[in-house]
## 1
Amino acid sequence: MALTPSASYDSLVNVPTDCGRVRVVPGSPSTSYLINKLTGVNICTGTQMPARGTSLPSSQIDLIRSWICQGAPRN
């Protein structure tokens, strides 16, 4: 998955995972697999992100949830 600034949106939004879930569902953080990976809840493959062993602060996860709630705009 490419997460460079120019490619990350197209790698995340409305893109299915290997286990059939969608990485980011615009407007729906509860069905966006990215939120599961960041919180370590209901993961179908791999481990919680980031893989370095330290979770993102809840304030950063909340910002990502908010972005998804806003329709995951390309900004």
## 2
Amino acid sequence: MPLVKRGNPTSPAGATPAHEGIASYTSALANPDPDTRWTAARALGARAEAVPALAAALSTEGVPRVREAIMTALMRVGDNASVAALLPYMRSQDASVRSSAIEALQAMPDTIQPFMARLFQDDDTDVRILASELARNLPADDATRILCALLQDEQHPNVCAAAIDVLAEVGTSAAVPVLRACAQRFSQMPFLPFAVSLAIARITGSEGSGME
């Protein structure tokens, strides 16, 4: 589901006249009609004061396109409260909900960054794996620093594999020593040293294994 990037809505349904308050829109989020809820969510995308109402509506919304509109609205606000409202959906049992939440959070790289350390300390392995995906849109130096900090302490091979995959795409040369140390730590699991070799080769632009 391609979420609309942050910014002012361009469609009439998404426009919020400056002279209008938010009360009518926030109350419309509970309307029985899905189209009315969708329009309300679109209209609240630039209103930080509407985040609590959007978060509450998201927790009960069952119609996918309305839920996506609410997530898009939170993404357009893009503040800490919006991130906090979206983070719980990384734990959803619904793959489409998880995917939409990750996509929305990835679109807020500056805001999500302070939350990353906490996510990487989560007891849920799946949350740590998904958190690695949030680093893809961070500046390369920041993504490298955050993911290397994870790799230095992470004990679960699948979490390490997720971080290595992202580093292969966005990592800088500063990641190479940490990647090599990770490969040595998991030397009994061939898939991880192999993934590290590919990541180092991609980061350094070499054609060899990257492990020499």
